[in-house]
DNA sequence: AAGTGATCCAACCGCCGAGAA
DNA sequence: CTTCTCGGCGGTTGGATCACT
């Protein structure tokens, strides 16, 4: 909160022309002033707002404070597995277009997503001594992190997923494809790595499809076009993947993803420890296992 | 309990593009 | 066409807090 840093020694002032502008952490009084002003006059015209509201802040500062902190629909707290999954996929697609990514995560700000990426995802890449933008790291994320996120996503959305939704079959790698891959690079396939790809329990598998197929609810028609296969699973190439290109991303958001995910039971491989509440990212990443995973990736 | 390093995240900075003058 | 202002964006900083020893 703003009070948290109110006593900071960094709290200082700068001179700009005739006017003395404040910098540093916002006080409760300033927040209140900004909220009341916007309630009366609306957002926008930030420089005018800064001048006429009585706040000794720059328009930019007011805008940032409002958008990143004070806006009523701002969601606080840890990112859900669904949100992490979406961030990873969208970042793979768009790169550091934080504001664009943020538009698909209601209540989350570009700043928050940027911080998440830099502090958690890039940290893992640094420790692995690989570029976070490299295909190697992306493969590691797809093969290792995403299955876990999907597992957790499934468990967290199992209560919310309406059973009345139409079902679509999500194709996993076929047995034939698996055999092909096994022949192509047998060293890539091991019991140790396969366990991360193990599809969820038999109760959610479709009996009429391949052994790896699972059934996902169809996304609401209002948020998703006539695209059926949005989540694919190929343990022998790129692992689990939410194919965001299958969606119209300008109208797609986390609610769509959440609604589309299967009612997975939490598998025995879930590393979540409910006692660890501070950082969900850390719960999902295990460096030893990720290192192990990377060794198994094709060159 | 104290010290230290790691992590988180609010806030700032500089740059850029759009639009108005 | 040029200049200026403003809003938006991505990158960076640094204090607070947490975790570990």
TrEMBL record:
The residue ranges of the HTH myb-type domain are: 18-70, 71-125
Q: What is its main location?
A: nucleus
Q: Does the keyword Repeat apply?
A: yes
InterPro entries, alphabetically?
Answer: EOBI/EOBII-like_plant (IPR044676), Homeodomain-like_sf (IPR009057), Myb_dom (IPR017930), SANT/Myb (IPR001005)
**Residue span, Myb-like domain:** 18-70, 71-121
Alphabetically, the GO molecular function entries are: DNA-binding transcription factor activity; sequence-specific DNA binding
Task: List, alphabetically, the Pfam families matched.
Answer: Myb_DNA-binding
| Record has Repeat as a keyword | yes
Recite the UniProt keywords alphabetically.
DNA-binding, Nucleus, Repeat, Transcription, Transcription regulation
Where is the secretion signal located?
none
CDD domains per the UniProt record, alphabetical: SANT (cd00167)
Q: Where can this protein be found? A: Nucleus
GO CC, one annotated term? nucleus
Q: Which PANTHER family match?
A: MYB TRANSCRIPTION FACTOR-RELATED-RELATED (PTHR45675), TRANSCRIPTION FACTOR MYB62 (PTHR45675:SF30)
Instruction: Identify this protein by name.
Output: MYB transcription factor
């Amino acid at each position: 909160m703003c009070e948290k840093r109110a006593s900071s020694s960094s709290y200082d002032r700068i001179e700009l022309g005739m006017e003395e502008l404040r910098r540093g952490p916002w006080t409760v009084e300033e927040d209140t002033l900004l909220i009341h002003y916007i309630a009366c006059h609306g957002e926008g015209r930030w420089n005018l707002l800064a001048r006429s509201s009585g706040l000794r802040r720059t328009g930019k500062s007011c805008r940032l404070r409002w958008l990143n902190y004070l806006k009523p629909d701002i969601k606080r707290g840890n990112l859900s597995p669904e949100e992490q999954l979406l961030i990873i996929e969208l970042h793979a697609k768009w790169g550091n277009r934080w504001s664009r990514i943020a538009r698909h995560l209601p209540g989350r700000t570009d700043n928050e997503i940027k911080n998440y990426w830099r502090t958690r995802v890039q940290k893992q890449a640094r420790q692995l001594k690989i570029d976070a933008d490299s295909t190697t790291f992306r493969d590691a994320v797809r093969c290792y992190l995403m299955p876990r996120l999907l597992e957790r996503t499934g468990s967290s959305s199992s209560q919310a997923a309406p059973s009345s939704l139409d079902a679509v079959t999500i194709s996993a790698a076929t047995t034939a494809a698996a055999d092909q891959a096994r022949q192509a690079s047998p060293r890539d396939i091991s019991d140790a790595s396969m366990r991360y790809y193990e599809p969820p329990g038999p109760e959610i598998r479709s009996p009429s499809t391949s052994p790896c197929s699972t059934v996902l609810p169809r996304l609401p028609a209002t948020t998703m076009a006539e695209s059926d296969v949005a989540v694919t699973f190929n343990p022998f190439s790129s692992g689990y993947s939410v194919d965001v290109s299958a969606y119209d991303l300008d109208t797609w958001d986390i609610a769509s993803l959440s609604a589309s995910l299967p009612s997975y039971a939490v598998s025995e491989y879930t590393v979540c420890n409910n006692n660890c509440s501070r950082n969900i990212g850390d719960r999902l990443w295990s460096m030893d296992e990720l290192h192990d995973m990377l060794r198994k990736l094709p060159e």
